[in-house]
Amino acid sequence: MQEFTVKLSKIISEFKLEEVYVPKPDILIGTNEVNRPGLQIAGFFDYFDSSRLQIIGMVENTYLTSLKDEERFQRVDELLSKKSPAIVITREIEVLPEIIELAKKYGVNILRTSLGTSSFMSALIAFLNIELAPRITRHGVLVEVYGEGILILGESGIGKSEAAVELMKRGHRLVADDAVEIRRVSSKTLVGSSPEIIRHFIEMRGIGIIDVKKIFGMGAVKDTEKIDLVIQLEVWQKGKQYDRLGLADNYTEILGIDIPSLTIPIRPGRNLAVILEIAAMNNRQRRMGYNAAEELNSRLMEQMGAEDF
Fold it and tell me: Is 172 a catalytic residue?
């Protein structure tokens, strides 16, 4: 699977980090793990991963300032000689002169933030999880309907974009049209977005390209959305058996995660926008533990049992 990276400059911009000394702003970060080098400044470097961003907080800084000048210089020298991508100092702690001097010697980026150490680390890891997540691009439409992220798939020209426009008219939101970038941000979660170049645009045959946020307003668009349901649209095939009860659970596997899915047949006269709204609400109900098909089946079984007596 392809591995992704993110430039340090993007992290600096995202968190508005102070650039104390930044000789290599375009250095690439390829891991979503970060490190507080407490053991390292105490001299223990076994299993140390120099590719991680290093975070120095109040504890690490207090320990360093408690050392004698010569020992402190040696400990900082050992840490910076590993040439990690950057060292971020939290809580606007004053940067030790030794850190700046040795950063210039080894070409290590030094940054600073006013955020607390734990708050910054959790936000940074969440950001890296998204930026470095495995991803694929699917041809389809991603919309948010009643808070549910619905990925609409189907052959070109089947009506995916038209359904999305009708949903926007009904107060729902467009995330992506035509190309949906899907990222696996955790072992259970997929997040979809649009390529930046076509974000908030939608194509309608016979009309052309429209700017959704200009026509429907900013409330009709969203940059990202978790994918909760996959709906496959297909032309109604006479004689084909379609699920009419919903007792069977169907899933679509994307990036190793199984997402609940439905196949909806299309033919003239069916109000696709209403169907998608019902699918979204029903999917939420099922996720909350209520399944209408199972409830009906249970009632039928109880009725049949009563009639036996």
Answer: no
- Residue for token pair 């959790």: 122
pLDDT digits (tens, 9 = 90+) for 125-140: 999 998 999 999 999 9
What's the chain's Rg over C-alpha atoms? 27
Backbone angles phi, psi at 33, to 5 degrees: -100, 140
- Of 156, 199, 137, residue with least CA distance to 174: 199
249 assigned to active site: no
pLDDT in tens, 83-106: 999 999 999 999 999 999 999 999
23 pLDDT more than 60: yes
From 52, 72, 135, 160, active-site residue: 160
**Which parts of the chain are beta strand (E)?**
6-7, 18-21, 28-29, 34-35, 53-56, 86-89, 109-112, 135-145, 148-154, 173-184, 190-193, 201-204, 208-211, 224-226, 229-235, 251-254, 257-266
If phi > 0 it is left, if psi is from -120 to 50 it is alpha, else beta; for residue 267 that is: beta
Which one of the listed residues 68, 238, 240, 244 is annotated catalytic?
244
DSSP class of residue 303 equals H
Q: Has 184 been annotated as catalytic?
A: no
Q: Please say whether the dihedral angle defined by the alpha carbons of residues 176, 178, 183 and 187, taken in this order, is positive or negative.
A: positive
Instruction: Find the catalytic residue in 178, 199, 226, 286.
Output: 178
Options 83, 104, 105, 139, the catalytic residue: 139
For 69, 152, 159, 177, the CA distances from 216, given in Å and listed in that order, are 64, 20, 19, 15
Q: Could you tell me the pTM of the whole model?
A: 0.78
Under the banding of pLDDT at 50, 70 and 90, the label for residue 265 is confident
